[in-house]
Amino acid sequence: MKRCLVLMLVLLATTAYAGVREDLIISVKNVQEYYELVYQNGRKDYFMFKYTAKVKSYMRQDGESSSWKHPLDTRRCSYRVSGFVEREGFFITGAGEFVPFKPFSRNYTAKFSGSSGTDVLDYVVGGHKTCGHYLDSFRKNKKYAKDAAIGLLTQIRDSEKNGLESRNDAKRTIKNVKELNVVSKEDIF
């Protein structure tokens, strides 16, 4: 009876955990820019762009370790990492509330993205690599994606602050806009 119990514990202990190890979207930097919209009739509104640099990471391990019932170790790992910038637009009411304005929402993809996993050849010849094997590479790719997303955020914000894109968006999307001026938060509140 004891042997049977020990054998069952060994079998259960050698079965690998299969499933998602990480599935996250993390904000790594957040910046707000404030604008004053001046309409043709002289009326003014205030508007805010919120830029958020984010990193999306996903890691999964499938399969199970070898045992006397399952002689092949079929564990394999796959992961993906990418960076992006999310821009959201908000009108600011006289009461200081932020009202989302969907036409100004936009996602920009950072140039870096990384992925990896167990090669098909390794799988066919019986080799395996668990997610523990890829952790260093996964962490490095997350750092590269973070740096790429923050760099992209700075580039987009600077471009829009200088009026290249946000002014054109505002004049196309919001009717009767005459001017779009950069202001500080203190000018509004």
Set down the secondary structure blueprint.
Elements: H1 2-13, E1 19-39, E2 44-62, E3 76-92, E4 98-100, E5 106-117, H2 120-124, H3 131-161, H4 166-173, E6 177-183, H5 185-188
Antiparallel strand pairs: 1-2, 1-6, 2-3, 3-4, 3-5
In short:
This protein is of the alpha+beta class and 189 residues long. The chain is 32% helix and 42% strand. The chain is built from five helices and six strands.
In total, the number of strands is 6
Distance between the termini: 76 Å
pLDDT < 50 runs, ≥5 residues: 4-17
Rg, please?
A: 26 Å
Biggest sheet layout = 6 strands, antiparallel
Arithmetic mean of pLDDT? 80
Q: Work out the helicity level.
A: 25-40%
Q: What is the SS-derived class?
A: alpha+beta
Fraction of residues in β-strands: 35-45%
Number of H- or I-type helical stretches: 5
What's the order of the H and E elements? HEEEEEHHHEH
When the domains are counted, the total is 1
How does the overall form come out from the CA principal axes? elongated
Please provide a written account of the structure.
With 189 residues, this protein is of the alpha+beta class. It has one domain. It contains 5 helices and 6 strands; from the N terminus they run H-E-E-E-E-E-H-H-H-E-H. Strands 1, 2, 3, 4, 5 and 6 form a 6-stranded antiparallel β-sheet that branches. A hairpin with a 4-residue loop joins strand 1 and strand 2. The chain is elongated, with a radius of gyration of 26 Å. The relative contact order is 0.20.
Main features:
single chain, 189 residues, alpha+beta, 6-stranded antiparallel β-sheet, 5 helices, 6 strands, elongated
